[in-house]
Structures are given as structure tokens and as C-alpha cells.
Records
---
Amino acid sequence: MGTMSGTTVMITGASRGLGRALARASAREGATLAICARGGAALESAAEECRALGVEVLAVLADISDATDVERFAATALERFGGVDVLINNAAELGPLPLPQLTDAPSSALEHVLQANVLGPLRLTQAVIGGMLLRNRGVVVNISTDAALIGFAGLGLYSASKAALDALTRSWSAELQHTTVRVISIDPGDMHTEMHMAADPEANPEDLLRPDDVAERLIALFAGRLPEADRVEAGSL
């Protein structure tokens, strides 16, 4: 029996990259899973990988930038499992490709990035955190980036959205400081994922972290102790 047996983990963007690796790592620890993504075939493939490890998996085709999809994903998961113990807001949008300089970036692109990277996690967290508080158990993890703190050319839209997500995390953490529920932000570092290679096509994969390695360290945190800080840097993992 794994260290997360009896725990329900909800992961967005679980069809590839870090999200898929987190789903596998959670399944290996015995967690029940509620996962979503926009790509049906890739999502079902990820779900089958986890079911093969002997855990129950709810896979819902959903776009986190769409409020109706978020509501449906949350409602379906809560109806199936009764509650969520760990929510990992992993799904994210970079913005238009090739990445535009802010001088040329359309404001509509920022609106879409904010829907996916800020409003989606906000809505999903609001949908499940009440149950966490009632059960005195739970953690919400917002996947962040060093781009939330440091300016990088071409990443202005993505950086602004992640900075906003970090700000929400800090405020929510302060509001919940007298409860047992935690909302934290984690910077997993630069990983060899499709998103990272889209942002930096010249990156050397050998210089990047493997999503599976990062996922194992993150799940070890959730399976054991939770960090006290509201933001966890990659170096502390």
C-alpha cells in the first residue's frame, strides 16, 4: 500500500510533461486520481498508465481556460470521490508562438493566458477548497516559474500571469494560516518539456531536468511533510 493510499489527487494538464509525470508518481504511491487535459487521446493514454498501477482514475476532457469546463471537471470529481486532498494547478499557456515581444503582443493574447494561468486555477481552487477546510485536510499546489520573478524577453505574457498566480497564492496562504489547509506555489525548475522547448528552442535537453525526477520529489513532499512557506523554489526540492 502506497504512502498516498486513501488520498485523492487532482491534476490539471495531465496528458504530458510534468502533469503526466505527477499523475504517474501519485499513482505509484497509491493515490486516487482526477486528471484533466485538452487532448483526448493523450489524456486517456495517461489515465491508462496510471490505472495499470492499480489506482482509480477519473479522466475528464477539459480546458482550464474555460469556466464551464472547470465547473464540470470539479463537479464530476467531487461527485465521484467526495473530496479532493491535493490539487495541483499545473496546466498553463505560454501565449502566441513564436513568442512575441510585449511591444507587438496583442492584448487579447494576455486575456487568454490569464484565463488559463490565473482564472482557471482560481476557479478550480474555489471549487474544491471548501471541502478541504471542512475535512481539515488538504493542499493546493500552484506550479510557478522563475519567470514570475525575473523578466525574460518574449515571456512577458506568461510571466505576468505566473506573477499574478503567485500573488493569489500568497494571499490565500495568509488567509488560511490558522487552518490545516495549505496553498503553496512551487517553481519546479527548467524541465525538458514541450512547453519549455517551445519557449526556448535552442535549449540543450541535457541541461534540463527530467519531469519524472521532479515529479518524484514533489510527490514525496505531499506524501510526507508540507512546506511551511507559500513558495518553494526548485533548489529546495
---
Amino acid sequence: MALIIDLKPEEKILIGSAVLTNDKQRTRLHISGDTPILREKDVMQEDEATTPCRKVYFLIQCMYLARSPREYHPKYFELLKMIQSAIPSTSIFFARINANIVQGQYYKALREARDLIAHEEELLQASGAVIPA
């Protein structure tokens, strides 16, 4: 079954290690195969990883895009321990993320990491902290 992606005019998409930029009209792509695919809106640049949970997302994104995802595991698990120690309520999010990582389902882990970031933002807002952009 092919993945169907509708691209807006001039929207970018990452397929494997290639960045494709749509022309000035909407386009529908049918993609078959097993390669990492991320829309521009889902890509986090390293300088955007401004909080611990955003760093988790960035590391999972690196795993998803890497030929050898395990090279990012030590940094990820070190960060996970630090976050869970400081914020125990993140454990449920990490349980779901880790289940996907163990199965090699990095895209699903990325989706779960978005929920982790939302949780972090809620906690920061509740504490009155300034949320980094």
C-alpha cells in the first residue's frame, strides 16, 4: 500500500536523505517503499531543540533518518533518565516512545514525542516559566 501525501505549493518533504521542494501548485505523491519520510513541518532543526523534551524529539528524528539508529540510543537514554528523574509524569510518554524504538518504529516514536513536548509545555506554562521558542 502506497503512502499518499498531498503537498502544498512550495512545501518541502524529506525522503531518505533527499529534500524535495514542490512547485507552485498542489501535488499528490504516491510513495511506495521503506525509507524515512518527513514533511517540512515535522522536521526539527538542532537549534530548535531548546528544551529537554524537544531534544528527545530531535534525537528520535536522528534515529529515524540514520542508517545506524542505535548510535543515538546512548544520548537518548541518558536524556530519558534525566527527564524522568526530574519529571516523573513523563514516564507514561517514555513507555510508549520506548516501545516503538525497541520495535524500530521511529516514526511512531516521533509522533509520541510530540505528545511529550505538549506535556512539557503544559508543565512549563503551569509553572509560569518562559517557554523557549
---
Amino acid sequence: MKPVRALALAALTCAALCAAGAAQAGGSSGASRFCDRGQPLTAAEQDRLLRFAAVLREELADVGDGVALVSRSGLDLSRFDIRYSHAALAWRSDTGAWSARQLYYACDESRPRIFDQGLAGFALGTDDPALGYVSIVRLPAEAIAPLRPALLDGPRVQHLLAAKYSASAYAFSVRYQNCNQWVMEMLAAGWGELPDGDDLRERAQAWLRDERYTPQPVQVGSRFLMLASHFVPLLHLDDHPDEDRSAMQLRVSLPSTVEAFVHQRYPASTRVELCHDDERIVIHRGWTPVAAGCKPGEGDQVVSLRD
């Protein structure tokens, strides 16, 4: 695959994932193809994903009224060694209902928005209904205590939202933002106990720098990258440092970098990975990835979808 085409595919993936809430939030009559599902789900596919969501809820049952980091797969980006493209923060309301608070791109408005989505909708948002992955990171009590009030603080949540979206947003610029960068800045606002204010994003990024948040650079591998922003909507490069563009690497927040930061800061955090194919759901515990193709390994739990 040519480098620019590959980058375009990655950008389309994150754009589509971050726009997944648009239809749930009120339709997308004027939406571009970035917001449209390729094919509607069949009854069998919808049933499979709803059963997958039920297992996801079961895994969160013992979290109490806390907060968990959840991530979802999208298009097949294994060629870039990327399994997860979209992260959110899941929380349970006083009524016991779980929601995933996340950034999505509102196509009708041409701007990013914060959207609360039920866990079933989160699972249904996967691009491939035949093979999907969800990662859950449970946080210890000392991490939840400062994070939950920040996550439920409407003004702080909105002040962390950028006016412009970019799938390739630089992790230390306030010019743009992608879905995973909003999660990172939300963690910073909570764990740094940062008060509200118009400059909250700047202070959140400064806190992340001080805490040595270092997203691993995405290696692009071609100078044709500079052309991509001219023809790929929702992809911008003008926020990245010149030295990064010259080195053909982008420091972008991805679910893997969010999880790595959480694990480093709170080693007591635990992780479980859920995946499904046409026949089964696999539940894999630990910080090592479940096998590609959703193949169960030693110690993994398997739930049949053939029942």
C-alpha cells in the first residue's frame, strides 16, 4: 500500500470512529462518507454484538460507581500494528446505567462534540461486525477518586474540547484534537486536580509533559505524507513540530499510549481484553494482547456464540 494511501486509511478510520456517535445523537442527513456505516448490520450481526456488549457489562459489574478506560477496534489496521483506534471513559450513573463518555466528530455541525453512549452502542460502533475487540482498564480507587468528579463536571469537560478536529492531532498542541487526545486531557484534569478555566487544555498538556507522557511516534515512512492533508478531510499536519515532520513521525495519542500511561502511573490497574468472531467471545486478562484473529490462549475464557 502506498504511504499516503495508508495514512489516508488510518485517518479515515479514526474519523469514522470519532463520528460514530453522530447518528446516535440525532442523525447525519448532511454527513459526509466519514460518518456513514458501509453496510447496515444484519439481525445476526446485531445479535452477536449485543451479546458481546452484555459480556462487556458483566466485566464492569464489579467496578461499582467508578470509572474505567475502554477502547474499541475499528478498521483492520494491523499493517500499522494498531488494534485499537478509539478510547472513551466509561462511568456508571446513580441509576446503575453505564455510559461511555467520548469525543466524536459531529458531521452535520463539522465540529467535535462530547457524547455519552451506552455500552451496547459503543460495541455496535465497531466497523467489522464479524471480528471486534474491546479493551477495559479498571482503575484503582486512588485513581478514580479525583477522576470521577472531573469527568462529571460539565464545564471542565467542555473546556477540554477543541473547536477543530484532526485525526492526526499532535499530542501537545491545542490547535486540534482527536478522540484519544481528549481522553488524555480528561485524565490530566482529574489526576492533576486542575481547576476549570478557558486555558484548561494548555494546563492539561503541561501536566502531561510534567508527568512524562510520551506517545510513541507513529512512523510514516514517506515524504509524500505532506501531500495527504491537502486531500484527506479531517487530517492536518500544521500542528506538528517541524522536526517531527522532517523525521516523518507523528506523536499522536492512541488507545495504546493512553493505556501505557495509565499503567505506568497506576500499576495496580488491571486490564481485560474481549474479542469476538462469528463463533465465540474470548475473554483475555492481563497486559499482554489477546492473539490475533481472536484465538483463545491458555487461561482465556471462551463464551460460545453458537448457543
---
Amino acid sequence: MSSAAAGAAAAAAAAATIAQAVKASGAIVRVEPGDFLKLVGRSEQPMVVMAEAFWGGYKYLMSHKGLAFHTKSGEPLELPTQVELVVARKIWVPS
């Protein structure tokens, strides 16, 4: 197999892996930090997953009305006191 064909096969395998991850997790909606905080405020019993990102920022994930919402922020978000916060080592969102 040529190196071009091997590269194409690797790219196809990576795309298939990402597609499978999206199917398994459902739709993930990326929003701005302010919009994320508005969604948190509209939830009755919000649970938010947070992880420090490798670039020094923070990633957040929550479910609201059947959809998963994700945001990134350079600074920690000020979450309301009623939020159940789950601190994770990593959040991976397929791109």
C-alpha cells in the first residue's frame, strides 16, 4: 500500500470513529459561555460536567431538554449555587 493510500485509509478510519462517537452521544451543541450560563439558569436541577482543558482553559458540558450543550472558556464560569458540579479529568467532544 502506498503512503498516500495508507494516509487516506487512516483519515477514513478517523472519520468513521468520529461519526460513531456522534451517533453514540447524540447531538452536541456548542454555545458561547454566556448562552451556556443562561441554559444552566433555566434548568430545574442542573448538572454540569467541567474539566480543565490542556490549553489552560475550561470545558463544560450539560444536558438540557434532550440535547447536550458544550462550551469552552478561558476562565472558570460562575455557576449558580444549585448546580450539581461533576469535575472530570477530560471532556472530549467529537469535531
